[in-house]
Structure formats: structure tokens, C-alpha cells
Automatic annotation (TrEMBL), chain A:
Residues 1-32 form the signal peptide. Pfam families: BPD_transp_2. Belongs to the binding-protein-dependent transport system permease family. LivHM subfamily. It is found in: Cell membrane. This is Amino acid/amide ABC transporter membrane protein 1, HAAT family. PANTHER family: ABC TRANSPORTER PERMEASE PROTEIN, BRANCHED-CHAIN AMINO ACID TRANSPORT SYSTEM PERMEASE PROTEIN LIVH. It comes from Ancylobacter rudongensis. GO terms for cellular component: plasma membrane. It is a multi-pass membrane protein.
Automatic annotation (TrEMBL), chain B:
It is a multi-pass membrane protein. This is Amino acid/amide ABC transporter membrane protein 2, HAAT family (TC 3.A.1.4.-). The keyword Repeat does not apply. One of its GO terms (cellular component) is plasma membrane. The keyword Membrane applies. One of its GO terms (molecular function) is branched-chain amino acid transmembrane transporter activity. The lineage of its organism: Bacteria, Pseudomonadati, Pseudomonadota, Alphaproteobacteria, Hyphomicrobiales. It comes from the Bacteria. Keywords: Cell membrane, Membrane, Transmembrane, Transmembrane helix. It is found in: Cell membrane.
From TrEMBL, chain C:
This is Urea transport system substrate-binding protein. Keywords: Signal. Transmembrane segments: none annotated. Residues 1-32 form the signal peptide. It comes from the Bacteria. Gene3D superfamilies: 3.40.50.2300. InterPro entries: ABC_urea-bd_UrtA, Peripla_BP_I.
Length: 540, 387, 435
């Protein structure tokens, strides 16, 4: 295989555009060309023609080109009429002439110019190349990085010329890196040049650098190969360490999901002793609350979409909390002291709730969107952190500490602890135990509902949502130690991290199985979980 | 028809009135159903079609499964949320035997490898499939596979004094782990599809009406024997210790009993009964796959026992049949979309209004009625919460 | 019914079980003869309800349409709906109930392979007809089953070809849920890719359990695998519930379709209705039908369907089209045979041709599979697909894949007197590899 055959389309289009642009800039002769031929190609409804038109537009230097390309990217470019012409959809749906941006008087019936992945890449390349004309440093840097990834030798002269003129240090280093990337695989350069390139690339230290270093040709001098091998080894060692850190991060993130799912159960099961099989359904109700909130926002207040989760959190808490109080008052309160039988009743309730949701919302998944502040990711070193996951960890910890504070610092928290520790004595102290029971169950359910808001961001919003978390939730609470909130926190995080550290070696399924076996064995060792409540009672 | 309750010898020490009625019903059913299936014309109103035979056969294996749960839950206070795992293991042992009996009649015609192995390019039979072409070995494994798992699991758990909800949760984790394991195609148990398309059992066509009837009668027989065994166990000294453990384990231990050994024996016996139920279930249903391991299934078994009456044995069997009949009935026709409401409602209603289950409530009523007559013959029938 | 019940009570004394049995038996006798019964065997509760409920509605819709057009053989059709509740043994029980008790002429049902495997023996024993409408792993051809969904060569291979030719993909991630359909499809694809010169190290195969929800590690691995300088694509046979978290994680980790496209075989309009599709724009799916197919037949079907469901946003999808094709084929075959008798209809079905919804015709072949066009679509931001490629002709199903060791010599042909589902062309015998 030749090196150019190995290239994907994006860099090739981009390189061609860049090479031409650098050349054009060099002779200082960028003139507005006639783009009517390109516009004609946009009306054939063929991807090949659209791609060619984009290339032509990118190089045309026409002031209208940027507008046309961005209209295509936004799906606002249409064609139609006889002979077919191209239109841009303006605000309010009016069709505009792409050159003059004036409304067209006799607009014909139009169809959108179709876009697929190939065209999307061509759009990226074209708009990248076009903004290079506008001399935006960030765009230039991106283009340089793309050339580096493509490692197309044909782009080397243009790149070197651009490098000579470049003043921005960031762009310059990107261009240097791109040049080095190309040089590593190039025939006919001196070993010293190649070693310099290896060192420059090796200093990047990431996955891409590894791939480039591995492409040192067989024919290279032994010292070059040696330098490349050393660089590869260094990077791999470094990346392995970062890999562990990354897995720990994934583990914490999984742990925070487990914590969210389990924390409500730590109240209803851990504190009250109700084997609450309907806990998962409370999580599901919270997720459906989010869906309803988003639906209302979508239809009535589209501007509030980014705040939809913030609105949903208190609503979900109140709604599922009320459902919890209702369940407690109608069913659970007759079952205190019969812990194992609560399992049956709540299992029945969970079936009813699932089928109720299925009847109301249908059996299919419901769409819950992510607000903009929850999408995207950033890097710390070689650690990639996604914003959504970060927010879920933050949210889980906030819920945890808020709950802890409620139990420790508030009057109702005090009463809850009193009732669960010694019901009769609490009653004789004047605490309305019935009311406290209802509030405690409501609190646990409400927290499950809030968890549902967060889980709607990473999982299906379907009637089965709760079922997939119930077993894990019980395991977390039991593993951590029933009746101890700190145990739930440590339990969730331990299980999450252990799972993610096992997964690369054992695979997703075996990892999970071995984790379950480990928990079973652990319970043999400590039958009351990680943080057992200390007491002298023989029955504990 | 040949046996009526009156003709049976009364053995109150072992069986009790309800036990005699239960066995009589079983005998009557296992005689009547084959007769009504074979001897009565298909268009007659009392003809029992073959599909009802296998349906009833399935209910009977479920009843045996429920019995095995009642033995440990009702009398020892072990709420196992993993009983379905023992049932499924017994089923898999039987399924592996049935798979090997297919021989060259699989779609690929491979004489040794089951279809799913040919399909996934396996070259030879994994070691754990050896021996399953022989029925006695498979029959042994039906008992040993669940028995050994229960022995190992119970030995660890009871020795460490894991009790109550902790035990329930780790039994659930156990069946969940097995579910995931059997789902894996690499395990060599057919993955999600499980084992199916059986042809013969001991040389008899598994789909023939005669075979179905024999399996049905065998299920009834297994249930009857299982009942007598459980009844024997709980009426013996051993059983009295079990009940004592259920009600106050620590005190039993202080009295000098090795509570964990008693629990272990009951747990292993129960697992083996569940295994037998699974082995009888598979040929009648025609498929065994990992969904039998799902924790939801095990919870459902508990519900059958609760509906019928925990700690009554007869109730467990009755509950299994009733709930499953309701499931069959409600999953057809216009009620189909609403059957989960009814099932869920039933569980809530039973726990709230019939905490002792159908049979338990009946005993209570009967005891009240004849308080002065004589000593009730069901002193173990009132379960107390195990903590 | 009540009468029979008391009668049975008298017969069996206090045998409650026996009474229940007879109550069950009683219903069969009471079945009316003036209608033709059509069985619907799709889960309405449990995990599979998410996919199967729509197909139940589709059959009911087709029955209503057919009755409005005068029924079949002068009789009205009557749909009998049961709920196997995503429980595989219950599928077998319900199939038996439909055939033996309700005496249905045909059954439309099943989604998962395991449910089909579970009911297979029942259909063979009681000699009835099952129409199975979902794409599956192939490696099966039974006399009593008609497969109107795609075999792997009618979906997976054209999709891979498309990626190779149009996106220049050279590195492949085959990601699937660990069950038989992904396993087989990936085995076939692996063999196919190797036959096209793709090297071992350029193929990554990954299996995850059902309902897998934490995709962080796997998506990161895919990202790593895709950063080796060669164009990489993911071929996804990930099943149902696991898809939403998978796509959400792709979006979260910033993998766009222009970088690493994902082509899925189990993601259709119905599944997309539950996802925010904006981050997914450009990812692909391969099916034999898309709602966005721009032909008059499809437009009319969608109009009627939305009127029937009284929901103008209700989507259509590929398994629905397969159900529609199967239903129409059955109607045509019954009219051809002049009876609903299973043997006559099974023979009449081969060769039956009906219009599909993508503007062409699909025919029932002697291997009990149908001919289909293959369409590749890119996800649009409105949850629909933009069809970027369509095979020029119809593709005949390879029920036995030539890429698998065990089945490369097998063919199926149910025409008389041949009548064999696993004929070995090497040994010249029916019955697989044979001895």
C-alpha cells in the first residue's frame, strides 16, 4: 500500500486545498472567481458534484463562498426550479439568492442539498481552508494539525512555506509537529533530520504520536530506529500510567452512578429496613419527570432548555417523594416488623408502576436531551474527562452530603434516627412515629427520583430503567453496610473503581461476574458489610 | 377416581389432613388427566388436550420448586432469592443430556457437537459436556450440580453467620452472576439461546403424547415424593431444630446445636429438589436458557410461596399452581396488556390481607373453630418473621 | 364455559388442578368457525415490549385493512393477541395455545432469536405457520417458518461494502451484544473482511452483556483503536437497550460520525425516537426499508398507519415492513391455495410476490426467505434516515452463510419433492454434514 492510499478523504481534500492556498497566497493573486459553475454542481443532487463544488468554492476566494458553505453545513441550502438554481434559506424561511443574499421574488419548490459524512468532511475542509484566508490563528492551527494527521508529503512545501511566515507560536509549534510527522515517513532525508523529527513527535507523548512513530520505514538508519523505539517505549510507559488514572476516573464515574442509584435505597432499606424492590421504579419515575419537564419546555419555553435539569431535580424529588409517601401510607406501614414481606409487596408495586408507565408513555424509550453545559469533554494531561460524567459525580456527592446533613443536623433527621433506632422510646418522647415513617420513606423515594434525573442523561428512559439498577443498588448498600451512609459512599466508589480496573483484563462480562463473586466472598468475611454498625447485641 | 381421600390410610403423624388431601388430589390428577387425554374423544367437553397436559406438567414442576423454597424459607427462615439458579442448573443438566441425544439430527448433522457449537466454529466438545450422553450420569448431575453449588455457597455463608437480608442479597448476587455467565457464548452452554430443539428422551420421542403423559405423571410423582420428604423432614427432630433456628438462631446455638450444619443440610436438600424440578421442567417446556437464572424469576417463586402460605408446604405448591394459572389466563386475550397490574396487585393484596397465605389463613380459621376439639395437627404452620 | 367448569368439578371431586385444566381446554371447543384466526405472538410486557408492541399494532392494522377490503376467502380475519411477556418458555406455551386451543391459521410473531428457537419445535409438531419479521443470524431454514427479515448478507455485508468504498474504511471495530445474532454476524463479517485483505490487527471484536450501560471503557478503546492513522468504523450489532447509553457515550467523548462512523443493524426509527439524535447525525444504519423512502406506496402506507394509530408522529420501521410483506404474502398464498390448511399454504407461499414499501417487489424464495433491497441510511437530526445508498437490485438471502465453516456446503429448498432445509451439496444428502 502506498502512503497516499492509506489516507482518508478529509485530509486529502484539505491538503489539496491548503497546498493551493499556500501557493496562491505566495503569488499574492487571490481573485474572486466565477462560482456559478460550482453553484450549478450543487443542483445535481449527487454527492460527487457537491464535493467538487465545495472544493471549487473553497478556492474561489469569492466573498459569497463562506456564506454558502455555512448554509450547507446548517442544512439551509436548497435547490430547485428550471433551470435548477441554489437558494439559501434566510430567517423566517424566505429563500435568498446565494450571491446577493436578497429574497427571490418567484421562489420555486425546492429540496435541500443533501449532505452525508463525506460532504460533512468536505464542508469542514472547505470552511477550514476558507477561514485560513481570513487569517484566524485557531483555524490555521487546526489545519496544521489536520495536515500532521494526514502526513501527506505533497503538502510539505506549502507547509514549510507557511511555517516560514508564521508568527503565532502556538500555530508554529503545530506546524512544526505536522512537518515532523511527515518527515518521519519520508524517503531520502538524513538520519539526523529524521531523529530530530522523532524527538519532536515523541515529545507529544500521546496515542497519535505512537502511531506516527511506528511508521518509521524499515530502510531507516539503525540509530533512527533505536531513537524511535526508545521514544515509543517511553510513551507507552507513560500512557500505561495515564491509562490506570483514566480507569480510576471511569471507576469513580461508574461509582457515582451506583451511589446515586443506591443512596435512596440506603434510606428506605438501610435505615428503615424495608426491602424496597420498587426503588428502581422511583428512579424511573424521576427520569420520566425529566422527560415531561423537557417536553413542556420544548413546546412552551424553548429558551429554558439548558435549565431543564435544574427545574426537573426539585420536581422529581417532590413527585417521587409524594409517591413514596403514598406507598408508605397505603402499604408499607402495615408491614413494619415483617421485613422480608415488604419485599413481596414492593415487588408487586414495582410491577404495577412499570406497567402504568408503559400504558401512559408507551413501551418505547423517551428522548431526554442533554443541556449544552453537560456535553463535551476536556483533557487534563492525557486524562480525558467528559463534562456530563463530571457533573454526575458532583451531583452525586452533593446529594450525598445534603442527605447526610439532613440526617445529622435537622430536627426531622434527628427524629428519623430516633424512630429507626428505638421506635417505642421515640414515641414516648412525643415523636409522631407514623409521620416520621412516611417522611423517611418519602425522603428515600425523593432521592431516588433525583437520581433518575441524572441517570436520564446516560441511560434509556424506558419502563425497564429501574430494573437495571435494582440489583446493583442492593449490592452497594449491603456491601457498604446497612444503615451506614458512609458505607454506601465507600461501597459504591469501591465497586465502581474495582469494576473498571477489572474490565480491561477480564472484559465487561467476566469483570462483572468476578466482582459479584468478590462481593459474595467479602460478605462471608464481613457479614455486616464494610461499615458494620457496632453493637453488643448478639443478633446485631 | 380409583383413589379417594377416604380410602387412604390416615397417618396424622406424617401427613395430616391437608397432606392427605394434597396427595389424593395429586393421585387423582395423575390418573384423570391421562385418562381424559387418551380415552376421551377430542371433541368431548371433558377431553384434556395435550397442550394442557404439558401446561399442567409445567405447573407441577413449579409446585415442586415452590416446595423447595418453602422448606428453607418457611421452616429455616432462609429467604433465598437465588432458588431459580438451582432450578436452572438441574434444567441445564437435563438439557445437556437431551442435546446429546439429538445426535446427527441437528441441522448441521454433526454427530457429537450440538448445533450452536458447530455454528460458532467449535472444534471439539468441551470437557464439561462429557458423560452427558448417558442418562444415569445426567440424572446424577441433576442432583449434584445444584447440590454442590448449594453446599459450597451454604458452607461459606452459614459458617460466617450471614443471615436475613444479607443472605437474601448474596443469593441474588449468586444467581445474577450465573445469569451473566450462562449468557456468555464462550461458556459453551448455548448463550442466550440456551438449549432447545430436543428430540428424544431415553429413546422416546419427546413430542409424542405418550411421552408427555409419562413426564406429567413423573412430575406429579416427584411432587408427591418431594412433599412426603419435606413433611418427613419438618416433622422429625431435625425439623424441630430447623424451626427453632428460624425463630431464635442464637438460642439454638447456645443450646449446643451446630445451627450452620442443620441449615446447610436443609439448603442442599432444597437445592436438589429444585434441581429435580428443573430437570422435569425442561423436557416438558422444550427449552432451557439463561433467563431462568434471572433474579426476577427467583423473586416470583417467593411470591408463589407467599400467596399459598409460607411454612405450610401444601400452600407453596398450591400458590405455584394458582399464580401460574393466573399468568396463563391473563396473558391471553383482551386482558393481556393489564395482567401485570393484576399480578402486582395480587402480591400487594396477599401481603396486606392474607399475610399467612391462602392455606395459612385457612389453618388459622380452622384452629380457631376447633380450639377445644383436639390438638391441631399443624403446629408448624404459623411462620414468624425471621430476623 | 361455566357449565363445563362445574361438570369438571364433579368429575374430579376436589381436584382444583384438574378443574383448571378443563377450563383451559374448554375454550378451544368454543372457537367460532365463521372467521379465520390470525395469531399475534409479540411481547407486550417485559424487556422486549419496547420493540415488539409496534409489531402487534402492525398486524392488527393489517387485519383491519384486509377486513375492510373484504377479508380472505370471503371470511373476516380475527386477530388473537397473546402476551408472551419477554419470557422465552412462555413463548412456547403461548404458541401452543394459539395453535392448539385457538386454532389460528397462521402466527405472526417473535423478535429475538431465542424466542423463535423456543417456539420452533411447537410449530413443527403442530404443523402451523410462523412469519418471523426481524433480521437475524441466518443458519436456519424450517418448513413451518417464513423469514421476512434480513439474513446477514441482506444487511451486514452491503453495509461493510459501502463503508469500504465510500468512506475508505480500513480498520474495523465489530461491537456487539453477546448473543447469537452478533456472534454469527461478526463471524461472517470477519471472514468477509479478511477475504477483502483486511489484516487481523485491523479488526477489533468486542462483546458486551445485554443492557450494558457503562460504555466509558469500551468507547475509549474504540477511540484509541481509531487513532492509528487509518480510517476506522464501528459495525454495531449492539442490541436494543444498550444502544442509547452507547450513543450517548460516543457523543460525550466527542466521537463524531465524520471521525469514526458507526453503522448499526439494530437501530431504526423506533429506537431513534428515544434518543436526542443531534450528536448522532451522520452515523449509519443498514436496513431493507426506511420510513424516509420516497415512493408513493410508502407515503400512502405511512398516512394510513398514522391515521390508524391516531398519532401523526408515529414512525414506521424495517421489521414493520417485514410484517406487512409477510402478511400480504400469507393472504395471497391463502387465496392461491383456496384454503388456510397449513400444508397447502406452505406450498403455495413459495414464489408468491408482493409489493414491498420501497417501490419494488419482494418474492418468497424456496429457502423460505424473501428477496430484499438493501438501503444504507445516515441518521438525520430529526430522527429519520437520509438514504445514501441503495443496492441496484434485490438480494436473495443466504440462509446458510458461505463464510461459516459449518454451513458453507448447505442449501435449503422447500419445493417438492426436494423439501429439505439443510441439504449438503457435497454429500448430496439432506441433514447437514451427515455421516
Amino acid at each position: 500500500m502506498t502512503s497516499s492510499a492509506r489516507l482518508s478523504r478529509l485530509p486529502r481534500v484539505l491538503c489539496a486545498a491548503l497546498a493551493l492556498l499556500f501557493a496562491a497566497a505566495l503569488v499574492q493573486r487571490v481573485e474572486a472567481q466565477d462560482i456559478s459553475a460550482a453553484l450549478g454542481q450543487l443542483t445535481t443532487n449527487k454527492y460527487d458534484d457537491t464535493e467538487a463544488a465545495l472544493g471549487a468554492l473553497a478556492l474561489s476566494g469569492s466573498p459569497a463562498a463562506a456564506g454558502i458553505v455555512s448554509a450547507l453545513a446548517d442544512g439551509k441550502l436548497f435547490f430547485g426550479g428550471t433551470p435548477p438554481r441554489v437558494f439559501i434559506e434566510g430567517t423566517g424561511g424566505a429563500l435568498l439568492d446565494p450571491l446577493t443574499m436578497q429574497p427571490v421574488a418567484d421562489a420555486p419548490a425546492v429540496k435541500p442539498v443533501r449532505v452525508n459524512n463525506r460532504i460533512r468532511r468536505a464542508i469542514d475542509a472547505a470552511s477550514g481552508a476558507l477561514s485560513l484566508v481570513s487569517l484566524d490563528a485557531a483555524k490555521r492551527r487546526e489545519a496544521a494539525l489536520a495536515v500532521g494527521r494526514s502526513r501527506d508529503e505533497a503538502a510539505l512545501p506549502a507547509l514549510e512555506m507557511a511555517l516560514g511566515k508564521e508568527t503565532d507560536p502556538k500555530v508554529k509549534s503545530a506546524m512544526n509537529l505536522a512537518r515532523a510527522s511527515i518527515l518521519i515517513g519520508k524517503e531520502g532525508i538524513t538520519p539526523a533530520e529524521r531523529i530530530a523529527a522523532v524527538e519532536l513527535v515523541g515529545a507529544e507523548g500521546n496515542q497519535d504520536a505512537l502511531a506516527i512513530l511506528r511508521s518509521v520505514p524499515e530502510s531507516a538508519a539503525p540509530e533512527v530506529k533505536q531513537a524511535a523505539a526508545a521514544a515509543i517505549e517511553g510513551i507507552e510507559r507513560n500512557l500505561a500510567l495515564w491509562g490506570v488514572a483514566q480507569n480510576v476516573w471511569y471507576g469513580l464515574s461508574l461509582g457515582s452512578v451506583l451511589l446515586l442509584a443506591a443512596i435512596g435505597l440506603a434510606i428506605t432499606f438501610g435505615v428503615m429496613g424495608v426491602i424496597n424492590m420498587a426503588h428502581g421504579e422511583m428512579v424511573m419515575l424521576g427520569a420520566y419527570t425529566t422527560y415531561v419537564v423537557q417536553e413542556v419546555i420544548r413546546t412552551s419555553y424553548p429558551g429554558l432548555f439548558d435549565a431543564s435539569l435544574l427545574i426537573a431535580i426539585p420536581l422529581a424529588f417532590v413527585f417521587t417523594g409524594l409517591i413514596g409517601v403514598l406507598i408508605e401510607r397505603t402499604v408499607i406501614r402495615f408491614l413494619y416488623g415483617r421485613a422480608l414481606e415488604t419485599l413481596l409487596a414492593t415487588w408487586g408495586i414495582s410491577l404495577i408502576l412499570q406497567q402504568a408507565i408503559r400504558t401512559i408513555f408507551g413501551p418505547t424509550n423517551r428522548e431526554v436531551g442533554a443541556p449544552s453545559w453537560m456535553s463535551g469533554s476536556f483533557e487534563i494531561g492525557h486524562l480525558s474527562i467528559t463534562s456530563g460524567r463530571l457533573w454526575i459525580i458532583v451531583f452525586a456527592l452533593m446529594v450525598f452530603f445534603a442527605l447526610l446533613a439532613t440526617l445529622r443536623l435537622t430536627r426531622i433527621g434527628l427524629e428519623m434516627r430516633a424512630v429507626t433506632q428505638n421506635r417505642r422510646m421515640a414515641a414516648s418522647m412525643g415523636i409522631r412515629t407514623n409521620w416520621v415513617d412516611a417522611m423517611t420513606f418519602g425522603l428515600g423515594s425523593g432521592i431516588a427520583g433525583m437520581a433518575g434525573v441524572a441517570l436520564s442523561q446516560i441511560d434509556n428512559v424506558s419502563p425497564n430503567l429501574g430494573q437495571s439498577y435494582i440489583i446493583d443498588s442492593f449490592l452497594v448498600v449491603v456491601f457498604g453496610g446497612v444503615g451506614n451512609l458512609w458505607g454506601t459512599l465507600v461501597g459504591a466508589m469501591t465497586l465502581g473503581v474495582a469494576n473498571k480496573l477489572l474490565e480491561p483484563y477480564a472484559g465487561a462480562v467476566l469483570g462483572k461476574i468476578s466482582l459479584l463473586v468478590i462481593v459474595i466472598l467479602f460478605i462471608q468475611k464481613r457479614p455486616r458489610g464494610l461499615f458494620a454498625l457496632k453493637g453488643r447485641s448478639i443478633e446485631a | 377416581m380409583s383413589t379417594s381421600p377416604m380410602n387412604m390410610t390416615r397417618q396424622p403423624a406424617l401427613l395430616g389432613t391437608s397432606g392427605i388431601i394434597f396427595l389424593a388430589v395429586l393421585v387423582a390428577v395423575s390418573v384423570l388427566v391421562p385418562v381424559l387425554n387418551l380415552a376421551v374423544a377430542p371433541d368431548s367437553a371433558v377431553h384434556v388436550p395435550t397442550y394442557v397436559v404439558s401446561l399442567l406438567g409445567k405447573y407441577l414442576t413449579y409446585a415442586l420448586l415452590a416446595l423447595s423454597v418453602d422448606l428453607i424459607w418457611g421452616y429455616v427462615g432462609i429467604l433465598s432469592l437465588g432458588q431459580g439458579a438451582f432450578f436452572a442448573l438441574g434444567g441445564y443438566a437435563m438439557g445437556m443430556y437431551l442435546m446429546r441425544q439429538i445426535g446427527t439430527r441437528g441441522v448441521y448433522g454433526d454427530p457429537v457437537l450440538p448445533d450452536f457449537m458447530v455454528f460458532l466454529n467449535w472444534k471439539e466438545l468441551p470437557w464439561f459436556w462429557y458423560g452427558f450422553d448417558m442418562f444415569p450420569f445426567a440424572a446424577l448431575m441433576v442432583l449434584l450440580a445444584p447440590g454442590l453449588l448449594a453446599l459450597v455457597f451454604g458452607w461459606f455463608a452459614f459458617r460466617s453467620r450471614v443471615t436475613g437480608v444479607y443472605l437474601s442479597i448474596i443469593t441474588q448476587a449468586m444467581t445474577f452472576a450465573l445469569l451473566l455467565a450462562f449468557f456468555r457464548n464462550d461458556m459453551g452452554f448455548g448463550g442466550n439461546n440456551g438449549l432447545t430443539d430436543f428430540k428424544d428422551i431415553l429413546g422416546f420421542n419427546i413430542q409424542a403424547d405418550g411421552t408427555r403423559l409419562v413426564l406429567f405423571v413423573l412430575s406429579a410423582l416427584a411432587l408427591a415424593l418431594g412433599y412426603v420428604l419435606c413433611r418427613f423432614l419438618v416433622r422429625s427432630h431435625f425439623g424441630k431444630v430447623l424451626v427453632a433456628i428460624r425463630d431464635a438462631e442464637t438460642r439454638v446455638r447456645f443450646t449446643g446445636y451446630r445451627a450452620e450444619n442443620y441449615k446447610l443440610v436443609a439448603f442442599v436438600v432444597s437445592a436438589m429438589l429444585a434441581g429435580i424440578a428443573g430437570a422435569l421442567y425442561v423436557p416438558q417446556v422444550g427449552i432451557i436458557n439463561p433467563s431462568e437464572f434471572s433474579p426476577a424469576n427467583s423473586i416470583e417463586i417467593i411470591v408463589w410461596v407467599a400467596v399459598g402460605g409460607r411454612g405450610t408446604l401444601v400452600g407453596a405448591a398450591l400458590g405455584a399452581v394458582l399464580v401460574n394459572y393466573a399468568k396463563t389466563y391473563f396473558t391471553s386475550g383482551i386482558l393481556a396488556p393489564y395482567w401485570l397490574f393484576m399480578l402486582g396487585g395480587l402480591f400487594v393484596a396477599v401481603t396486606l390481607f392474607l399475610p399467612k397465605g391462602i392455606v395459612g389463613t385457612f389453618y388459622e380459621w380452622r384452629e380457631k373453630r376447633r380450639q377445644h376439639d383436639d390438638i391441631p395437627d399443624e403446629p408448624l404452620a404459623t411462620p414468624r418473621p425471621a430476623e | 364455559m361455566l357449565n363445563m367448569f362445574t361438570h369438571a368439578r364433579r368429575m374430579a371431586g376436589r381436584a382444583l388442578v384438574g378443574a383448571a385444566a378443563l377450563a383451559l381446554a374448554g375454550g378451544g371447543v368454543a372457537s367460532a368457525q365463521e372467521t379465520i384466526k390470525v395469531g399475534v405472538l409479540h411481547s407486550l410486557s417485559g424487556t422486549m415490549a419496547i420493540s415488539e408492541t409496534t409489531l402487534k399494532d402492525t398486524v392488527l392494522f393489517m387485519v383491519q385493512e384486509q377486513n375492510a377490503a373484504g377479508g380472505v376467502l370471503g371470511k373476516k380475519l380475527e386477530a388473537v393477541v397473546v402476551d408472551p411477556a419477554s419470557n422465552w418458555p412462555l413463548f412456547a406455551e403461548k404458541a401452543r395455545e394459539l395453535i392448539a386451543k385457538e386454532k389460528v391459521a397462521v402466527v405472526f410473531g417473535c423478535w429475538t432469536s431465542v424466542s423463535r428457537k423456543s417456539v420452533l419445535p411447537v410449530f413443527k409438531e403442530l404443523n402451523s405457520i410462523l412469519f418471523y419479521p426481524v433480521q437475524y443470524e441466518g443458519e436456519e431454514s424450517e418448513r413451518n417458518v417464513f423469514y421476512t427479515g434480513a439474513a446477514p448478507n441482506q444487511q451486514a455485508i452491503p453495509a461493510v461494502d459501502y463503508l469500504m468504498e465510500n468512506e475508505g474504511v480500513q480498520r474495523w471495530v465489530l461491537a456487539g451484544t453477546d448473543y447469537v445474532y452478533p456472534r454469527t454476524t461478526n463471524k461472517i463479517l470477519e471472514a468477509y473482511l479478511k477475504s477483502k485483505g483486511v489484516k487481523e490487527e485491523d479488526i477489533m471484536i468486542n462483546y458486551t452483556p445485554f443492557g450494558h450501560s457503562d460504555w466509558q471503557t469500551i468507547v475509549a478503546d474504540i477511540k484509541k483503536f481509531g487513532s492509528a492513522g487509518k480510517k476506522t468504523a464501528v459495525v454495531s450489532t449492539i442490541n436494543g437497550d444498550a444502544n442509547v447509553p452507547f450513543y450517548k457515550e460516543l457523543g460525550n467523548q466527542g466521537i463524531k460520525a465524520t471521525d469514526i462512523p458507526v453503522v448499526a443493524f439494530s437501530v431504526g426509527e423506533e429506537e431513534l425516537a428515544g434518543i436526542d439524535t443531534k450528536p448522532l447525525v451522520g452515523h449509519l444504519a443498514a436496513w431493507n426499508y426506511f420510513q424516509s423512502v420516497d415512493v408513493p406506496e410508502n407515503a400512502e402506507f405511512i398516512k394510513k398507519w398514522q391515521a390508524y394509530t391516531k398519532n401523526d408522529k408515529r414512525v414506521t420501521n424495517d421489521p414493520m415492513e417485514a410484517t406487512v410483506i409477510g402478511f400480504n404474502m400469507w393472504v395471497k398464498a391463502v387465496e392461491k391455495a383456496g384454503t388456510t390448511d397449513a400444508d397447502a399454504v406452505i406450498d403455495a407461499l413459495i414464489g408468491v410476490t408482493v409489493p414491498n414499501l420501497s417501490g419494488g417487489f419482494s418474492a418468497m424464495m424456496p429457502n423460505h426467505h424473501i428477496t430484499k433491497p438493501v438501503l444504507i441510511g445516515e441518521i438525520k437530526d430529526d430522527g429519520q434516515f437520509d438514504i445514501v445508498e441503495q443496492t441496484p437490485g434485490l438480494i436473495v438471502a443466504e440462509e446458510w452463510s458461505p463464510y461459516l465453516e459449518g454451513s458453507k456446503d448447505l442449501i435449503a429448498d422447500w419445493r417438492k419433492p426436494f423439501s429439505c432445509g439443510n441439504f449438503n451439496v457435497k454429500t448430496g444428502k439432506c441433514g447437514g454434514a451427515g455421516q
